Amino acid sequence: MRHRFWLPLLCVALAAATAAAQDAPAYPTRPIRLIVAFSAGGTTDFVARLIADKVKGPLGQAVVVENKPGANGAIGADFVSKAEPDGYTLFFSTAGALAINPSMRTDLPYDPIKGFTPIVPTARNTVLLAINTGLGIDTAQQMIARAKEKPGTITVAITGVGAISHLAVEMLQSAAGIKLQTVPYRGAGPAIADLIGGQVSAMSAEVPVIMPQIKAGKAKVLAVSAQARSDVIPDVPTFAELGYPDVVADNWSGVLAPPKTPAAIVAKLNAAFNAVVKDPEVRRRLADNGVSTIGGTPEDLATLIASETARWRKVVAETGIKDAQ
What we know:
D-Maltodextrin-Binding Protein, domain 2, 6-stranded mixed β-sheet, 5-stranded mixed β-sheet, 11 helices, 44% helix
């Protein structure tokens, strides 16, 4: 008797649940925020805006870039980590927030691993060393020789303590046995202005940031911190070619969501972003600025973060840098 009483009610409940699921609007139904943890105008912002503009096609909704700079990506990372896991707040991260900060700081307000749901790796680019054209230095070897002759007299602009541009300089100093004077800036714009104006001797920066000045002859590239030469500036040697194989500072970007984001949303986002990074126009525009696309699975991004965290932990320990702010 009890079974005959409950069975019709159960059938009604299941039918109602099925109808509700069928009537539920498919994600996404409103614009998505893509948080960039650096200022507008830098490499990360440039790549994020290009990808965000294109991904609205496969998603059917606008993806709006929102800049939350500070603390080498920690402010933006913390914001996304604590957001609702509904797919409407995403993090466009680089190595800094997830792979470098854990070794730099003991007070991170977010967990670099448990605090996020990986979506997709998106792009990769490298760091170069550019010098003011008025210094009379034409090669990296000449700069290293001058630094050995006059330690601490060559000033190098970096885009923040603990930024990948900073770590590239620290690796070079260690490998070449030289002393450079790093000058931290809050963004690439002011650093470039001071480089061109002669307030600093050189600048360590990601390729896209300073390419306009390089093309205009306002600054000269000495070398790139990469495993292989850049397709954009193929005549510029790598530090590895010059005898410093450990001076490699490739940066990368990826899209993540808050923890506990539903698998169905993760899958849809992964497919959409992969479609964009495979788009020929996107790949061409990024390649013209020294950026290559990646793409892949959420697991690929998780693996990348784990391997890069181990690598930068070793670099930070060797250079002794701590407490990026």
